[in-house]
Design a protein that fits this description.
The chain has 288 residues and is α+β, with helices and mostly antiparallel strands. Helices cover 29% and strands 22% of the residues. It contains nine helices and twelve strands. It binds glycine (GLY).
Length: 288
C-alpha cells in the first residue's frame, strides 16, 4: 500500500477528501445533490482543526466546494459560520466561481418525480438503493450501501486531528433548513487531546443531543470510539424509540491512539478507513 504518512496535515486531508466527493455527481453531497422542496440545491459544510479553529457555511448555493469556503471562513474571518447569500458573497469575493443554478440530470429527474406528490416525507440515510435513488454513491458492488453526508476525520503524522463534513442535506427540505453538518458539536467535533467524531443521518436528531460533542465526551470518559458512538445512538433512541425506528443516524469516531469505531441506529451505515495498514470499507454496528 502506498505510504502516505508524513505527506501533509490532517486538515489538508479532510478538505481534499470532502472536495473529492463534492466533485462527483452524488445524491447528497455537492451541487449534483437533491434540491430542497423549492428545487434549489443548498450546501452545508464545516471544518475543524487540532487547535479548535472552526469554519462553516450553511445554505450555500451555486458554489462547488463548500468545504473550501468553510476553511476560508476559518482562516480569513473572525467568524465561524456564514449562511445563505452572505456565504455566497464571501465565496465569490474569495475567488470561488458562481456555478449554474441548474440541477444535475439525475437530481432533475428525482425532483420531477417528487413534485408529483410533493410529500414532505424526507427519508434520509436509510441505506437502500431503491429509496436513495440510482445515482447514490455505491460502496459495495451490489449497490446496497450509500449515504447522505460525507464526514471525515483524520490524524496526521504529528498526531494532530482534524475533521470536515459536506452535504447537500436532507432532500426536499424546507428552503432555509440547516442540518447538523455545518454545526460544530453536532455534525463534527474535534478535541485534539481526546479524539474526533462526525455524524450522518437525520440532522435534527443529532443537533438535539449535540451528537459529536457527546461522542467525544464519552471518549474522554474512557469509552472506546465504538462504544462512545453507541452511547450517543442510544441517547437518540431513548428519547423516542418509535421515531428512531423511522430514521437513521450514524456516528463515526477516532481517538488519539488512532483507534476508530462507528455505530448507527439501523443497519447499513458504512465507513471507510485509510491508513498505512488499512484501506477498507466497514459496515457499522447498529442498534435496531
Ligand atoms: N446529516 C445531514 C443533514 O441532516 O442535513
Amino acid at each position: 500500500m502506498e505510504d502516505f504518512i508524513q505527506k501533509g496535515t490532517a486538515l489538508d486531508a479532510v478538505e481534499a477528501g470532502a472536495m473529492h466527493i463534492e466533485n462527483k455527481i452524488d445524491c447528497c453531497v455537492g451541487l449534483g445533490g437533491y434540491p430542497d422542496r423549492d428545487g434549489i440545491v443548498t450546501l452545508d459544510s464545516c471544518i475543524m482543526d487540532h487547535k479548535a479553529n472552526i469554519g462553516a457555511v450553511a445554505g450555500l448555493e451555486r458554489i462547488k466546494h463548500p468545504v473550501s469556503v468553510a476553511r476560508k471562513v476559518m482562516e480569513k474571518t473572525p467568524h465561524v459560520i456564514l449562511v445563505g447569500a452572505g456565504a455566497q458573497q464571501f465565496a465569490i469575493e474569495n475567488g470561488f466561481t458562481l456555478e449554474s443554478a441548474e440541477l444535475s440530470g439525475e437530481a432533475k429527474k428525482a425532483y420531477a418525480e417528487w413534485l408529483k406528490k410533493s410529500e414532505y416525507k424526507p427519508v434520509i440515510n436509510i441505506e437502500n438503493k431503491k429509496q436513495n435513488g440510482p445515482f447514490a454513491p455505491n460502496f459495495f458492488e451490489d449497490g446496497t450501501a450509500n449515504h447522505d453526508t460525507m464526514g471525515l476525520v483524520a490524524m496526521d503524522a504529528m498526531g494532530n486531528l482534524s475533521g470536515a463534513v459536506t452535504t447537500s442535506g436532507m432532500a426536499y427540505k424546507l428552503h432555509g433548513r440547516v442540518g447538523d453538518s455545518p454545526i460544530i458539536g453536532a455534525g463534527l467535533f474535534v478535541d485534539n487531546e481526546i479524539g474526533a467524531a462526525t455524524s450522518s443521518g437525520t440532522g435534527e436528531e443529532v443537533i438535539r443531543i449535540c451528537g459529536t460533542h457527546l461522542v467525544v465526551e464519552f471518549m474522554r470518559q474512557g469509552y472506546s470510539p465504538e462504544m462512545a458512538c453507541k452511547k450517543a445512538v442510544e441517547r437518540i433512541v431513548k428519547r423516542d424509540a418509535a421515531k428512531a425506528k423511522t430514521l437513521q443516524v450514524g456516528f463515526l469516531a477516532m481517538n488519539k491512539k488512532g483507534q476508530y469505531g462507528a455505530y448507527a441506529i439501523q443497519k447499513g451505515f458504512v465507513f471507510s478507513v485509510k491508513s498505512n495498514n488499512e484501506n477498507k470499507i466497514h459496515q457499522s454496528k447498529y442498534l435496531i
